[in-house]
């Protein structure tokens, strides 16, 4: 039998599986400010949700569907602009820390308010889009536990 065919088949299977991994996200139905939500996530899980790609976005929106607004880990640190709460650069692959899914005309500091934190907007009309919000507002939130799960194709 031609071993090149077997290696090609196995390589294709491995590539296919690699694109099916998603992180484990947990929706917390307690309203907290962004900072308090971050503290909770860091104490119980790993951090507020980091969303690096559309697969992560789908996993988060599945966890927090039709919940209104929920904090995620994106915030404006006023020095380097929008960045994820999980500040470990070794965690991110090329381009992952730059993934954004802003709602139309966001971020916008609506009506001149300082809106330095980001909430996920749920419901079918929003499709998991993000909006900048005042960090002192209280919303539910989504945490991430730092582990991967593997979904089936």
UniProtKB/TrEMBL annotation:
InterPro entries: C-type_lectin-like, C-type_lectin-like/link_sf, C-type_lectin_CS, CTDL_fold. Transmembrane segments: none annotated. Keywords: Disulfide bond. The keyword Disulfide bond applies. Residues 20-144 form the C-type lectin domain. This is C-type lectin domain-containing protein. It comes from Oreochromis niloticus (Nile tilapia).
């Amino acid at each position: 039998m031609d071993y090149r065919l077997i290696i090609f088949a196995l390589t294709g299977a491995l590539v296919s599986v690699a694109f099916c991994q998603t992180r484990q996200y947990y929706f917390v139905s307690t309203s907290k400010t962004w900072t308090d939500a971050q503290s909770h996530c860091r104490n119980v899980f790993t951090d507020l949700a980091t969303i690096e790609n559309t697969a992560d976005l789908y996993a988060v929106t599945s966890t927090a569907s039709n919940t209104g607004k929920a904090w995620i880990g994106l915030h404006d640190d006023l020095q380097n602009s929008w960045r994820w709460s999980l500040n470990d650069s070794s965690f991110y692959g090329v381009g992952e820390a730059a993934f954004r899914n802003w709602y139309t005309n966001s971020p916008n500091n609506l009506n001149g308010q300082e809106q330095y934190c980001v909430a996920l907007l749920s419901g079918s009309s929003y499709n998991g889009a993000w909006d900048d919000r005042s960090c002192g507002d209280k919303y539910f939130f989504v945490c991430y536990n730092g582990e991967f799960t593997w979904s089936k194709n």
